Amino acid sequence: MGVAALLLLAIAVRVHTAGWARADEATTLWFVPDDLSNTSSCDSLGMERVELYRAVLRVNDSYATGASEDVFFPLFSSHPLPGPAPDSDLEADPAVRVGMIFVHGALRNANAYFCEGSSAVASRGGDVKARTLVVAPWYGTEQLSAEEWMGRGNGTSTRWTNNSWIQGGDTRGKPKRFSTSFDIMDQLVRLLLDGAPLVDGAKLYPRLDHVVIQFAFRYSFFAALDTRVRYLLSDAATWMYFSPERPAPRCTLLHDSGVSHACVEFGEPDVEECTGYNNYKYGLGNLSSSESRYVERFADDQGLLDDAVELWADKDVRFVFGQHDTCNAQSNGYDNARSCFQRDAGCYPVSGDVALREMNLTGMTCCDTFPASNNNVLDVNCEAMLTGSNRLQRGLNHMNYLTHLYSVRRRHSLFAGAHSDYAFYQSKAFVEWAFPGELDLPHTKEQGPRVELNR
Length: 455
Hints:
Elements lengths: L39 H5 L9 E5 L12 E7 L20 E4 L8 H13 L9 E6 L8 H5 L5 E2 L23 H14 L15 E4 L3 H6 L7 E4 L12 E2 L18 E2 L25 H7 L2 H11 L3 E7 L18 E2 L10 H10 L2 E2 L15 H4 L5 H16 L5 E4 L5 H5 L2 H7 L21
InterPro entries: AB_hydrolase_fold
Keywords: Signal
């Protein structure tokens, strides 16, 4: 499905489930945004009418802009969501006890993530599907009316510029800077954690026991600490570093260094042509230029930023990497494994000299997001290349960096696959960590308690 990064954030929370009405199948003329026009994944999983699961989250005016517009965040949901003004014919389903939120990657194909997430839940068998709420938010670049999204109602949707939402970016369009992607995720998580009052404020809707959310590593850093939250992250294009240190050059060689790759040396790089290497989103520098009101408040308060670094060690963050996610189609000198070349895949763009030479010899295309998509979107900017030359190497380097910084090894695992969200969702680690049972233990002995940083 074409993603720049597969990022799963699993959140163990308490939630409730009323206040949402599925769009009317009989009367709605569906508007299909470009991001959601590819339905092949849903069709293959028997969910040809995924549009029937469209829902909305009414967005708070997070920064008191005074805007009078009614703004909503579009998403897909398998069950009614909590809300302050539910439709009279919808009631909370007491059987629903678990929530899972799957967030798309760079292609913004929320429909595919909803279908594949729903499939992963259904594959568990038993009563898992009946007691699990599946939600897939859409951080789109198109601004829609409620009529276009739901077939009824008032208001306009949130939208972002390109993939600014991954970094917590401000909403675009009208009203401008009304909220941010991180504020909206906060709002959704709080809704699931704490429930919402009935119109008369008499009581809360029933709450769920656990929620699983797929979202960005950067959100796990800036979001408030909550011991009920678990983050499961996978195969990001880049990982944010909490200090100016980076892996030593010997840790970023231009080839697949394997699943046993380890880096034990970190320091500030000597870079004359990449002076902004530690700027946000790659590091914590220059936060004031983040174009995110959520992030900018950390730029103005060094104590708040220091606390975020300290508190991250208390967060239950786990990582799962594809052991074959090692392809790089755009860097000169990078030696791709034969598995990176696919016949008839038509992956684009390919600009690396070695990759182009191999393509000319074999007639096969070099792909760095296969099988998720045929879009080569691995970040090969100098800032990213300082952390590793492919996704697996960058992920393992970051695991070693976190151990270097906190003196505690973070839990991570591998799955037998390349850049594939479907393989990730079906992996042993995902099943063990995302579904109830494991979620009852927010921290493990292996992760340990919070410790002092290695300064």
